[in-house]
Structures are given as C-alpha cells and as structure tokens.
C-alpha cells in the first residue's frame, strides 16, 4: 500500500509543480507587452463608361448635321487614358436594289481642331476622365457632325438611306 500512496503523492507533486510553472503565463501583461501589425489592402480597379450619340435623322441637302447627343467618356483610371475611335461607312439605300449609297464624313472638334473619324481617335486623359466621373457636369462631351457635300446630295438616287457608326473605346497606358 505504501507504493500506491507514493505514486499518488508523486502525481500530486507533479501537478502542483505544473501549476507553479504555469504561473508566469497568467502574469500582468504590462510586465511583458506584445505587439503585432496587420496589413490592410484595397484595390480600386480602373473603369470607364462610354456614352454615344443617339440615332439622328439627316435632312436632305444638309451639308452638316450635328448628331443628337454627344460622345462622352467618364471614368476612374490609374495612369491610363481612353481612346475612342469610330468605324463608319456610307449611308446605304434600304429600299433600292442597285446598291445606291451616299458618302459622308464624321467629324468633331478637339482643342479647336477638326478631327475626322475613323482615321483618328479622340483621347480622354486621366484627369479629364476623373473630372467627369466625380461630377458629370464636368464631363467633356464631344459633339459629332456628319458632313455630306453638295455633290453627294446632287447625285444621290431617290430612296431611304441608313448607316451605322460603331464607336470603340480602348483603355491604354497614359504613355502610349
């Protein structure tokens, strides 16, 4: 029976010693301050919105017609710009079978200079995009004009004509 008592006593002494050794873990934290850092990250992706003119009717004989609405790009970009190009063809007769067309030019003004589509694009810079993004009243709106010269009108065959202008906006690095 002595051996059992000794074994029980040894277990109690071991347990008591463990509690004494665990004591410093319960000590006042001001005696052993600890600190660490957490990194926070957020990403705001580049984005833009293209607004194009609405469908427009061109009056017969009109040399220059301003499209209804304007071309506008607003956005929030990071060291980028947006370039808008347009692909356009002739006005094609919708009620004739002989392939009659009327040739036209699509133009706008950028910084006081005429720019013709589709050969050249129009660029919106990061500050221009952001100004319109933050306050739409500050957005740069380009008015587009369809020009049809007198000879094209004079030689046009009777009929109804329709054409499509396709606008493409591309984000590019500001250095391009």
Write a short abstract of this structure.
The protein is of the alpha+beta class and 176 residues long.
Write up what this structure looks like.
The chain is an alpha+beta fold and 176 residues long. It folds into two domains: 2-31; 47-173, Immunoglobulin-like, CATH 2.60.40. It has three helices and 13 strands, in the order H-E-E-E-E-E-E-E-E-E-H-E-E-H-E-E. The chain has helices spanning 2-22, 126-134, 150-155, and strands at residues 47-51, 64-66, 71-76, 80-88, 91-93, 101-102, 105-110, 113-117, 122-124, 141-142, 144-147, 161-162, 165-173. It has a four-stranded antiparallel beta sheet with strand order 2-11-7-8, with no helix packed on it. Strands 1-3-10 form a three-stranded antiparallel beta sheet. The chain has a three-stranded antiparallel beta sheet with strand order 9-4-13. Strand 5 and strand 6 (101-102) form a beta hairpin. The chain is elongated, with a radius of gyration of 37 Å. The relative contact order is 0.21. The model is unreliable at 18-23 (pLDDT under 50).
């Amino acid at each position: 029976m002595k051996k059992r008592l000794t074994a029980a006593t040894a277990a109690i002494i071991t347990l008591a010693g463990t509690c004494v050794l665990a004591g410093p873990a319960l000590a006042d934290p001001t005696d052993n301050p600890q600190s660490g850092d957490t990194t926070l990250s957020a990403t705001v992706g580049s984005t833009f919105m293209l607004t194009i003119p609405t469908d427009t009717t061109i009056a017969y004989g009109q040399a220059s017609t301003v499209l209804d609405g304007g071309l506008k790009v607003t956005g929030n970009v990071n060291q980028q710009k947006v370039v808008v190009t347009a692909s356009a063809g002739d006005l094609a007769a919708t009620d004739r079978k002989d392939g009659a067309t009327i040739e036209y030019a699509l133009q706008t003004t950028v910084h006081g200079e005429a720019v013709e589509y589709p050969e050249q694009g129009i660029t919106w810079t990061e500050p221009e995009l952001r100004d319109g993004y933050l306050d739409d009243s500050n957005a740069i709106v380009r008015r587009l004009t369809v020009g049809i010269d007198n000879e094209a009108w004079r030689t046009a065959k009777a009929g109804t004509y329709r054409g499509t202008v396709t606008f493409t906006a591309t984000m590019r690095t500001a250095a391009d």
